[in-house]
Amino acid sequence: MLLKIVGSLIVFISCTLLGYSHAKTYAKRPQELKVLQTLLQIFENEISFLSNILEDAFLKVCSCTDDKVGAFFKETAKNLEDGFCAYEAWTKAVRGNIANTNLNSEDEDIIISFGKMLGSSDLEGQIKNIHLTVSQLKIQEQKAQELKDKNESLFKNLGVLGGLAIIILLF
């Protein structure tokens, strides 16, 4: 009997933790999108007001955050140093680090499209591209917030109730 209770407790705790960990991905995506918007605005300031070259601007931006999306900027600076053009450096950095974030493929497409104009237009074109990307990311953030509100508690409750259902089935 004691073994059944301990086993049930383990099943319940693991199902609950599974539900909470899945819910956490919904909670982190809006935060990461917000951080990315902030970093792009810092990047805009670096290239417009401080007139930094792209590599220096990317390095300064990545030093502003510990967040996982900051890796995009750090890796891009490294890729630029290795001789890649700006678009290739950005695309390679995003594709190499997107799996470490909670961003989805729609977010990835927006982020990669930002890189298409990097280094290939004048300062005004770069700034317009940053504004466009930030506005697209704001829309994605709103969608992510709606998904969070809808699904976060769902998965938390599903983990708890799923664990209880398994325990009931075992007894």
Explained architecture:
The chain is mainly alpha-helical and 171 residues long. It has helices at 2-48, 54-62, 70-81, 86-97, 105-115, 123-170. It starts with a helix and ends with a helix. It is 81% helix and 0% strand. The radius of gyration is 21 Å and the shape is elongated. It contains six helices and no strands. Helix 1 packs antiparallel against helix 2 (54-62), helix 1 runs antiparallel to helix 6 (123-170) and helix 3 (70-81) crosses helix 4 (86-97).
What is the helix/strand order? HHHHHH
- Distance from first to last alpha carbon: 11 Å
Question: What does the overall shape look like?
Answer: elongated
**Overall pLDDT:** 88
- Enumerate the spans where pLDDT stays under 50 for 5 or more consecutive residues: none
Helix content: over 70%
The percent range for strand residues is under 5%
Biggest sheet descriptor:
none
